[in-house]
Amino acid sequence: QEALAGEAEVIPAASPIALGVNISTLLEARKTPGTGASSVGLCRTELLFPNRQQAPGLERQVQIYQHIARECAPAVVTFRLLDAGGDKPLPWLGKGSEPNPALGWHGIRVLLDNPQLLDTQLQALLEVSRQYPLRIMIPMVSELDEVLAVKDRLATLAGQMALPCPPLGAMVETPSAAMLADVLAEEVDFFSIGSNDLAQYTLAVDRENPKVADRLNAVSPALVRLMARVVDAAQPRSLPVTLCGELAASPDYLPLWLGLGLTGLSMQASALPAIRQRLVTPVALPERQALLGCRSTAELSALLQKA
Ligand code: PEP
Ligand code: MG
């Protein structure tokens, strides 16, 4: 309790960037108000139903999402649609083995191949939206059609339930989504950059392989350029662009996110105090052109150290 009270004192009056938390358990939901976070930028719904043999039904999903929204209020929760596959296999989907799971049946691909599963989750979230404002986010987007398909189902189901559509966002976790950000921006309400996967796919580095995964702890110039593309695509429509991968938790990179023009960061709650502390003193923003001109990770680090 005391630690939480002490922590709250260093929350700057006006943060230049919205700070949110990532959650994947009911316990983390319960702790959310104590973190002072203004939102839940990522709720990993695929981790909310462990040890199951079957897909959770509508009633169970409504119950869990409602519980989470209630515990987190007044923070608005961004529910990510089930991100099954890759590093998060769901036993009840019975997908069998794949030669290369990271490039396989994953995220939105699984949902579009299981329309009933997608519909049930959307219906559950719509039901909860009667009582709590929430946002819905699509994982592992790589094509426009995937966004259009979800948007269409959401609009149809919301119409049937006589409800407005909650804000719908796309995760930018593949280079394809980043390259298509201008196209996607016409169809979504917000972007959330998943740097864990975006870096994995951009650098061809397996996040699960200890021999190479270390390379994902530093920001590469290619990642910076892709992220800048997303910000540029979002700006004409004033769409929020949040970063919710692990990199958001590192205070050293704050000048980079501010310099690029990200509107929010979402991270594990334990990382928030250090980020807030870094924001207490004004952050010198590196020139955007200088950031985009960096030719290597080393040049980028040198530039950020001056900030
Ligand atoms: C990401 O890829 O950066 C992300 C936030 O999603 P996850 O780590 O759950 O794949
Ligand atoms: Mg991801």
Account of the 3D structure:
It is found in: Cytoplasm. The protein is of the alpha/beta class. 43% of the residues lie in helices and 12% in strands. The protein has an eight-stranded parallel barrel, surrounded by five helices. Magnesium ion is lined by residues 173, 194, 196-197.
Task: Itemize the secondary structure elements and their pairings.
Blueprint: H1 2-8, E1 18-23, H2 26-35, E2 39-44, H3 58-72, E3 76-80, H4 108-113, H5 115-129, E4 134-138, H6 144-160, E5 168-172, H7 175-179, H8 181-184, E6 190-193, H9 195-203, H10 221-234, E7 241-243, H11 254-260, E8 264-267, H12 272-280, H13 288-293, H14 297-305
Helix pairs in contact: 2-3, 3-5, 5-6
The structure holds phosphoenolpyruvate and magnesium ion.
**Bound heterogens, unique:** phosphoenolpyruvate, magnesium ion
- What is the radius of gyration? 19 Å
Which percent range describes the beta-strand content? 5-15%
Sheet bearing the most strands, described? 8 strands, parallel, barrel
> Which residue ranges are poorly predicted, with pLDDT under 50 across at least 5 consecutive positions?
1-13
Shape: globular
Mean pLDDT: 93
Number of helices in the DSSP assignment: 14
The counted number of beta strands is 8
Distance between the termini: 34 Å
The helix/strand class is alpha/beta
Give the SSE order as H and E letters.
HEHEHEHHEHEHHEHHEHEHHH
Biggest sheet strand order reads 1-2-3-4-5-6-7-8
